[in-house]
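Weekly sync, protein design subgroup
Attendees: M.S., D.O., the rotation student, P.L. (late)

Item 1: inverse folding check
M.S. brought a backbone from last month's batch and wanted to see whether the design step gives back something sensible before we order anything. D.O. pointed out we never logged the input encoding, so this time it goes straight into the notes. Structure tokens as presented (227 positions):
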């Protein structure tokens, strides 16, 4: 059965693995471009790359609603636990097994703090291995050379990359990251949600298809890409 990636807007994704659902960075409340209809799903896990409000987002509310477990960097996991959710605290370089696959926690060049302003450990990115597919979510990040290591060592099939600039990589950096990741598909994220990160996603698609071997998939919020 194919894995279905549904874009929730911003950096949020809902992944359907044969009827088990996993979320990454669900940011719904306060997101003008969010996709919100996902009632009565079997959401077992929420993966959070870092503590900023547009990534931790609605994770605590949704984890309670669905009785899901939040997996994230140790310090941020402790924060979520104090707010009453089930958590799994992880750290950089860890390989974490789940019923549906496993996740490597990998670097991101970014900061992290909780909505209350507390230290939240490192910002991170995540590589999901589900069956024979590898999905890499870069979190919020600037361009860094670890992308090359991730491409050489982990060999992702598909990368979800921020392209909006200002807080993260912009278009040209994300094109370079795609080359280093050496993946066959890329989905742009973290753009157009706020005025600072408005960008021309068509320019990203054109550059990806001209300069790399990857296919660029632009998803409107709510749309699904099957891999
Ligand atoms: Ni951030
Ligand atoms: Mn962000």
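Designed sequence read out in the meeting:
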């Amino acid at each position: 059965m194919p894995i279905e990636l549904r874009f929730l807007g911003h950096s949020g994704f809902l992944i359907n693995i044969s009827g088990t659902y996993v979320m990454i960075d669900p940011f719904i409340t306060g997101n003008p471009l969010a996709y919100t209809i996902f009632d009565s799903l079997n959401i077992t896990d929420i993966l959070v790359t870092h503590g900023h409000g547009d990534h931790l987002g609605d994770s605590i509310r949704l984890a309670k609603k669905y009785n899901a477990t939040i997996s994230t960097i140790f310090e941020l996991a402790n924060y979520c636990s104090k707010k009453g959710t089930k958590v799994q605290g992880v750290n950089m370089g860890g390989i974490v097994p789940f019923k549906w696959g496993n996740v490597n926690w990998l670097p991101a060049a970014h900061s992290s703090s909780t909505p209350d302003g507390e230290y939240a450990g490192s910002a991170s990115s995540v590589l999901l291995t589900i069956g024979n597919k590898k999905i890499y979510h870069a979190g919020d990040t600037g361009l860094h050379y670890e992308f090359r290591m991730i491409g050489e060592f982990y060999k992702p099939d598909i990368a979800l990359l921020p392209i909006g600039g200002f807080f993260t990589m912009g278009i040209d950096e994300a094109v370079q990251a795609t080359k280093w990741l050496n993946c066959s598909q890329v989905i742009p994220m973290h753009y157009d949600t706020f005025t600072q990160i408005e960008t021309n996603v068509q320019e990203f698609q054109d550059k990806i298809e001209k300069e790399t071997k990857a296919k660029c998939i632009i998803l409107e919020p709510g749309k699904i890409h099957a891999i």
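Discussion: Residues 52, 54-55, 140, 167, 190 surround manganese (II) ion (ligand 2) (CB under 6 Å). DSSP finds five helices and 14 strands in the chain.
Action: P.L. to compare against the previous round before Friday.
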